[in-house]
Amino acid sequence: MCMTGSTASALVCRTTNYRASCKMSDTITLKSAHNRAVYEWWRSSHDGGALPRNAVLSTLGKYLASCVVLAVKRDPDDFHYRFAGTRIDEFTHQSLTGLSMSAIDAQKPPSAIWSACCTVRDERRLVSGMVPYVGPRKDFVHMEDIILPFSNDGKQVTALVASVDYFRSDDDSHRI
Fold this sequence. Notes:
Layout: H1 5-16, E1 18-22, H2 33-44, E2 67-73, E3 78-84, H3 86-92, H4 112-123, E4 126-132, E5 140-151, E6 157-168
């Protein structure tokens, strides 16, 4: 089950360091140059006031290694990994492609990432966060992500793209 509305956004921000969801016109501050580039790609993919169409996902190209593409499932709610880049697999030590969030203990409800994805889906807005990195790479302490909505019809969110960057404990400004 997804939480919706401003309560979910506030909860996501308070519990996970996720920033409140943003409108297209909002200024967003991202530490990662990679995430800023993906954000600009997403902004340039808008057709007027409509959400970017799923068809533009084929232009994600050079950013794919550090991105995941999630299909939005309804009834029951879920997010299905259509694609996970090689950097994502490296940092999670598993292939996420083909899995559902509800089947992953750390990602199923009521996890922070699940709530963030629900916020993006339900409010049709991006969410960004700087969260602690938990995984096999002990020299990294946090990760920044940005979750972006996409649509088949420009209105209902049918896919999410999450761009992720990782930061070392010894150099917060360095992306590997």
